[in-house]
Amino acid sequence: MLRIDLTAEDMTRLRVPGRPDPLWDTVLSLHLLQNRQSALAFDPWRRQVRRRIAAAGLTSTVTALARLAPWASYFPDFLTPSPADVPDLDAGVDRVLSTPRRRMTRELARTYPAGGPAWVRRVARGEAAAMRWLGSALRRYHAVAVGPYLPWTGAAVAADQGARDAALRRGGVHAMLGSFDPLLRRDGASWVGSYPVTRTVPLRGRPLTVVPSFFCVLEPVVLADDDLDPVLVHPVDPAPGWLARGGPGDDGRGERLPVAQLIGPTRARALALLDRCRTTSELAAALDLTPATASRHATVLREAGLVVSRREGNRVLHSRTRLGSALLAGQLP
To answer: What's the topology of domain 259-328?
Structure first.
C-alpha cells in the first residue's frame, strides 16, 4: 500500500502541472515493453513500437536501456529528474546526464548489487563515452516509442486534467484529491492507494508534484529516494481503442484488438457486475465462484486495463475502468 500524509499546508503546496513528463513517459513506456500489462490498450502500441525499433536498428540499444530501467520494484531515480526541471525532452536528458557521479553510482549499485554488465559500470562511473551513449539512447528511443504518439497521449492527459480542474472548481483541493478515487483515496489525513510494496512518502514540508502519465498503468509510481523532491506519477486512462483509430503508422485497417482472446462469458459477467466497487468475495458470490477463482478473473481483467483494484484493509475492491465500460458496451472498433 502507498500512503502520503497530507496536512492542510501540504494541500496548498500541491503541484499539478497537468502535462506529461518526457522522461517519466520514456521510462514507463520502456516498462510496458517488458511486461504485458493493460494488453487490450497497449498491445497494438507494443507491436508498432517493436517494429519501429527494429526498423531503426535500435534493438540492442533499447535492450540495454531496459536493463538500465528494469520493470522491477526498483529502478534508478536519476532517470526521472524533477518535473520542475524538465520543460522538454532535451532539458530532461541534460538533467539525467548531469546527475552527480556519486548518486549515479549509488543508484546503479542498488539496481545491480553484483556490479552488472561492464557498460552499466561505465555509466555508473560517468565515463564520457557512456554518457554520450545514454543521452543518444534516450532521445532515439523517445523518437520511436513516445514522440509519434504525442497527439493521442496529450489528448488523454488533457482530458484527465480537465476532470481534475472541474473537481477543483466544484469543491476545492479536497474534491480534486477525491477525483482520483479509486486509484487513490482519502483515509483521514492521508492519501492512500494500491502499491507493490508498503510505502509511505514523507513530504517534510516539501511540495508534492502530481504528474499524469499515459504510460503509467494500474498503479501510481513514486520515487524510491525519500530525500528527493516528492513526485507522484498517476495513470491516465487511454481512450478506448486509441491506436485502432488511425494511430501513427496505421494502414487504414487499424490494429485489431485481441478482445475475443480476453473476454469469455465468465469475465464478461464479472465486468458487467463491476459497474460499482465490489470486493473479491462479493464478486465470487455473484458469479457463484470460489474467491480464488474470482480473484484470478479480476487479475486478468486488471492486467488488460479493464478493471482497477485497490486494497482496503484485508479486502480488495474492484471496479470497471472507462476502457472496460466501452468494451462492455461494444464501443471498441
So the answer is: Arc Repressor Mutant, subunit A (1.10.10)
